[in-house]
Amino acid sequence: MIRVIIERHCRPDKLAEMESLLTDIRTMAMKQPGYISGETLHSVDDQTLWLITSTWLDVDTWKA
User: Fold this and answer.
1) Closest to 25 in 3D by CA, of 44, 46, 43, 39
2) Nearest to residue 19, comparing CAs of 47, 56, 38, 54?
3) Secondary structure letter of residue 32 according to DSSP
4) pLDDT digits (tens, 9 = 90+) for 35-53
5) % helix, strand, coil for the chain, step of 5
């Protein structure tokens, strides 16, 4: 099992678009073989900062 951690920053004027995009991506990821779980976190101190974590069966399923 592997855990993937991705940090993303976005422009302040694109926050709504970023939230929508990350929701769509997570929805698609949930349908992929090997996906176990995930979280999308948004900083309260820096509204432009997002942290996305996902857990996968193995590195091959994540890369696919």
Assistant:
1) 39
2) 47
3) S
4) 999 999 999 999 999 999 9
5) 40, 40, 25
